[in-house]
What we know:
heterodimer, A: 320 residues, alpha/beta, Rossmann fold, 5-stranded parallel β-sheet, two-stranded antiparallel sheet, globular, B: 323 residues, 2 domains
Amino acid sequence: MDLKQEQLLALYEKMATIRAFELKAVELFAAGQIPGFVHLYLGEEAIATGVCANLEQKDYIASTHRGHGHLIAKGGNLNFMMAELLGRTTGYCKGKGGSMHIADVDLGILGANGIVGAGMPIATGAAFACKYKENGAVAVAFFGDGASDRATFHESLNLASIWKLPVVFVCENNGWAISNAQQNHQNITDISDRASGYGIPGVSVDGNDVIAVYEAAGAAIERARRGEGPTLIECKTWRWRGHFEGDPGAYKDPKDQEEWLAKDPIPRLEKNLLKLKFATQAALDKVKAEAREKVEVAVQFAEGSPQPDPGELLTDVYAD
Amino acid sequence: MKQMTYAEAIRDGMRVEMHRDPNVYLAGEDVAQFGGCFGVTAGLYEEFGPKRVMNTPISEAVIVGHAVGAATAGLRPIAEIMFVDFMGCCMDELFNQAAKMRYMFGGKARVPMVLRTPCGAGMSAAAQHSQSVESWFTHIPGVKTVMPGTPADAKGLMIAAIRDDNPVIYIEHKQLLPVAGEVPEGEYVVPLGKADIKREGSDITIVTWSWMLQKCLAAAEDLAAKGIQAEIVDLRTLIPLDKDAILKSVAKTGKLLVVHEEVKTSGFGGEIAAMVVEEGFDYLDAPIMRVTPPDTPIPFNPILEGAYLPSEEKIAQAVEEFF
Lengths: 320, 323
């Protein structure tokens, strides 16, 4: 591990922010303040954090329906995100996208996505643009185990391989395609095995170990930047909540749930930081408290923001 | 002006823009050395090289989907889908991704891409290689739909489509590819959303587009010999729809026939009829009629296919029934 103290603390801070944001989303959704569907990233924070710590602003990501973590990790603004969840005009999408469509193209965030597996072709195209423009940038596609069964997975990995595109495919295998457990929707254990079918490297890592994710993603991203083509990374993790808020996840075995909750990626990094004497418990508690505070500020910003004027319905269908 | 075929005119439009804008590139199945399934892209690989003219695997979803990502990241892709019939393999990338990105993101994305694809019957290619399905696309807010009916329009609309900052589906008709005509040289632009009166007349308005334009023009000559002067409105782009051109013509003639190659039910002719009833009912002195194929898949046998397609005779007969 060659991560320095401040880098590890930055990873910790990012994961704590995602956690605080998602816990607040649970609360707001239950209180009826968030319309529509919300899919939470709780328990999977190490993946977005570890991957995006290797990215620069010029790099692209394509996210998923479970996208809040990716956005925060790529530098998304919490105020604009929260305002979007609440459908306000100050939100990233002026209240027209919601949780499933938050984007910030200037930050290289090509959108959360309501269609499972739709981000892979988009990231492939963004990577094509990076290669075409020779700007040294890369693209990352996040997707789940369920999406790895879609045709878009096959077509994107194959095209990216033959065109040698600077793209990294990050599969967040959280064990569940909605209510369908991995063993029931694919006859393999390691999704990274599929990489060999496209002639690209594939690697599986512990998705709850932010350092392992950081290192695997770093190697793949560097490879992409060198012009050596795509990599498939499978990050094994667990979805803490139901598929969406409101789904109690009754199909999960409580023993599995308990086992995975004990593998929470945040205390895991915390232990490491304490052991390395990179921080005191009090300092880490302060980071978490500050993360919660930032999220509170975002909620206040969102709640204080106006609802859209009905005339907004008709704008932005076409670019002029 | 130069004589060229519709296929050459499409290619010339792409060439002009590829010379003008280095961010324009072409990707699709067999579009490089092979020159495209119908030869439309012949020579572009030799002229622009492998960076800008790319063969893809047979992977329609990522052909369209990668174009969405590349367009959002600053390029101007021209993606080719070999037959419009194959759009079923990549509709998500068009209708959930390309079309909605700008709106969903609050106006903060541009998706300037052209999706070229050939349509149309008349070559015994049967039910999966002959269709006209433009209403699939006109029903998607966020997409523009272009269907040229002449070589000059094919070039001018191609240039406009490439320069447009929205996803544009550019549907070229297989029967028109060898049709020759006068085409302006250089940067000739036909604006999207402007219909063209291809024949002036005072007795009846015929609204049509694509290959059916040629059928209607032929029918109009026969009708003229019988003393009926048909005015032919070539829509050229279905979305944006040039309502004014249609209404103005109907105001003049009082009669409207719509001719298209899509099947009748839920075809775009229904939309035009509804629009004219809503916005120009007082102009009408007869019911609006349509000449279209029946609601069947397209048959293989040439006799059956001929029975399926609208013809000059069917169009002329439908017009005569107004009088």
